[in-house]
Design a protein that fits this description.
Number of helices: 3
Distance between the termini: 36 Å
Number of domains: 1
Largest sheet: 4 strands, antiparallel
CATH class: Alpha Beta
Order of helices and strands: EHEEHEH
CATH superfamily: HPr-like
Helix content: 25-40%
CATH architecture: 2-Layer Sandwich
CATH topology: Histidine-containing Protein, Chain: A
Mean pLDDT: 91
Shape: globular
Structural class: alpha+beta
Length: 83
C-alpha cells in the first residue's frame, strides 16, 4: 500500500464539490475529508456538500492518483488566497 498523503483544501462552491467527489470516486482507495471532529468520505456528494464552504478542510488520501492530486493542489491554492 502506498503512503498516506494529507493536504489542506478549500471547496468554494457546489460545482467544485461535485468535481471533487466525481474525481474521488474514480480513485480505487479511500479518501477522507476532515473538519474538526467530523470525518466525511470524499466520495459522498451529500457528505461533502454538508461541509461549511468557508472553512479549510483536511483531505487524507490512502493511495496515489495524479489527476485527483492535481485537483487537490488547485483547491489547496485557494487556502492561501482567502484569509
Amino acid at each position: 500500500m502506498k503512503d498516506m498523503k494529507e493536504m489542506t483544501i478549500r471547496i468554494p462552491d457546489v460545482e467544485t464539490a461535485k468535481q471533487f467527489c466525481r474525481m474521488a470516486g474514480k480513485c480505487p482507495f479511500d479518501i477522507d475529508v476532515f473538519y474538526n471532529r467530523v470525518v466525511i468520505d470524499a466520495k459522498s456528494i451529500l457528505g461533502v456538500l454538508s461541509l461549511d464552504k468557508s472553512r479549510e478542510l483536511n483531505v487524507r488520501m490512502y493511495g496515489e492518483d495524479a489527476a485527483f492530486e492535481a485537483l487537490c493542489e488547485k483547491l489547496h491554492a485557494l487556502c492561501d488566497k482567502v484569509a
